Amino acid sequence: MAFRIFNTMSRTKEELIPLDGEHVRMYTCGPTVYNYAHIGNFRAYMFEDLLRRYIKFCGFKVTQVQNLTDVDDKTIRSSIQQGLPLKEYTKTYIDAFFEDLAKLNIEPAEHYPAATDYIDEMIQLIGTLFDKGYAYKSDDGSVYFSIDKFSEYGKLAHLDREGMQAGARVAQDEYDKENAADFALWKAYVPEDGDVVWDSPWGRGRPGWHIECSAMSMKLLGESFDIHTGGVDNIFPHHEDEIAQSEAATGKPYSRYWMHCGYLVVDGRKMSKSLGNFYTLREILDMGYTGREVRYELLSSHYRQSLNFAFKSLDANRAALKRLDEFYASLVEAAENNDVAGELPAWASETRKRFADAMDDDMNISGAMAAVFDTVHAGNKAMSDSPVSSREARAVLDLWSELDRVLGILIPQEEAIPSRVFDLLEDRKKARAEKNWAESDRIRDALAECGWTVKDTPVGPKLRKL
Ligand code: AMP
Ligand code: ZN
Questions:
Q1: Are 159 and 240 in contact (CB under 8 A)?
Q2: d(CA 426, ligand 2 centre) in Å
């Protein structure tokens, strides 16, 4: 079966077919680094992690770009309040963000561009919009995008174009659908911006938030790429505006699939900084919960449903993870260090197919987790009746490893093989198939740097810890 994903643009499930047939290029709107990310933000990053991992499971390569919004209304306001230069202020939260990702076992993206490093690209893009007649300068010196000129404006959020007020302008980065209006590409300098200012052909100022993502995504992934993701709150205006700017400038389709996750809610309301109903990851870890328990919580509801956050689910996850660990430990014991896998026992023979069928259906995580827990249940029962052979146990462990490359919770993190090591192993297989021995040797060294070695056995290469 093929991997089908719900495309916000068409409001239907579509098969994921990368532009070049084998390599999925995806852009993920990243954190605005003016504070610690809360676990609502991490719900979005977790959905994107599951997505990239499952795309790889399907046999595609992935290049994911996740930006760091280190200049916008909020970062400037907060850095000035703290009396710190913008870069110094945002660095604290950028460092914290990477620490949190590691705690949650979220795989690193391939690129993390910071907006302040791409100002030239943004200026260039705005210049193109000027040349093509989509941008204009207002009286205060700011540059706006004219939504009237882009006839497809509103296609992602399904806006009613008739109801739009011609000529209205909005300067803020965030606004609602009812106020769809010409939006700022370049904001003229105002004293409240302190020393956050760049020169441009339209005078001193700074970029608007939306142009940042268009410039960084197209620079790193090309003018047309495969998937663009975020939370549902990004659909309008952020993603609508990105589409308008990018497609107006290039005349080409921007992202082919748009995917958005539902909210993490507390008592029915979106978790957000502005409502004050949020927990940061570090607060939850300080209470004694583990990153793996939080990962389980963020992962185990379907990404498009809203997820109600409650501590009692975290407690329940602890029990579920204990069951997984006990199952894993009994398999390790039964495998007796045997490297050579035999056939899967009957109770695990359908697991991979059930898992993949569920995930293929727009990442139906409940179905995928049911395949896992049914296997644990049946396996525990079978192993209590009669022991499995070491070769069977090894086969189940190999399967578990494969599924855990998608889920990242089945195996205790210390014992799991890191995804980078798996990726290197895949690259090595390819290099050897092409008889590229120099590349194969280089990969062997890279594996050793990660603390792993590979042994070629009659049933294929096997990874071992050094
Ligand atoms: P921000 O830093 O506000 O730009 O948000 C970063 C990412 O987190 C975006 O993709 C948002 O859509 C997402 N996000 C923010 N709050 C929530 C929430 N309560 N539930 C799910 N995603 C969220
Ligand atoms: Zn963005």
A1: yes
A2: 31
